[in-house]
Amino acid sequence: MSHELGRLEDLPQDYRDDLIKLNLVPLWPSLRAVLPPKVPTRKTRPTFWSYQSLRPLLLRAGELTPMEKAERRVLVLANPGHGLEKMQASAAMYLGMQLLLPGEWAPSHRHTPNAVRMIVEGEGAYTTVDGEKCPMHRGDLILTPTGLWHEHGHDGTEPVVWLDVLDLPLVYYTETSYAIEGQRQPVKPGHGEQAYRSGGVMPTPVFERSNKAYPMLRYPWVDARAALVALAADRPEQEAVQVSYVNPETGQDAQNILGFYALMLRPGQTLRLPARSPAMVFHQIEGRAEARIEDSTFTLNEADTCCAPGYTAVTLRNLSSEQPAFLFIADETPLHQKLGVFENRG
Ligand code: 1HN
Question: Does 241 map to a domain?
Fold first, then answer.
């Protein structure tokens, strides 16, 4: 069925000129490009970002560009397959390393793209999301869902760095990306991470469940890590030791577009992740691992980040035979499921 179709050059020039004048385009010369056989065309390339290499450049940005001139001081982890200027890690994911120096403040705003922060280094910074003050510690995941006010502050003494993951490329593509500037937020009492501290029980004052779309904004690493360690001990026969970051009220994905997970590789373990349609991002929280993605093999030291295109199996290997390795994963699964295009090809 996949026989050759007519080319643009096969058409007489006067006919092509007439089409252009009327904003018309013949489909058949481009049909195979937009509907390739069996496997989609992916601009997303396996790409690796070394934290050790980017860190001095990020700290230099701290000297070169004051907060007033940056608002958010970020070096974007851009996938060359998309073109660096597009600031995309994959079709739907944006990644950036953000630096906040002691005493600095990143002003309050809210916007349509969803963001999360994965804290990479430093103590003393916090982000206030919808009035909830969320302290930042290594490995914590903090949500900034669509439409919620957020600002960052830093009362500590050392630089703080975190990885931002946003669905900005998708929201921008759909022509729905915008922001509103705001005032400093008053801090309200109460922390979702305390209310939902224990799996299986949740707060129901006078039998009422929370009606918040995002009841939990901060997922402390100590809790996610403890859950992984307990899972590994409880299920020695289970190959993948993995947890998902979910909305504790609904059990659904924590955010609408991107999915977030933490994975533990046992000492010496090799784990093959199936070829699924969503692109994936890996960030090393603890230990050392190797990621094999198509023809690339990346060594992930602590705080390193890499990405894999969709429809691609990824093999992860813990490079230590003594210590577990812990990775944070972000992917496009909720988006693919909502669009009805999600596939797991094994
Ligand atoms: C944003 O709001 C933050 O609030 C970081 O820290 C990175 C990249 C694009 C658009 C908005 C932040 C962002 C962003």
Answer: yes
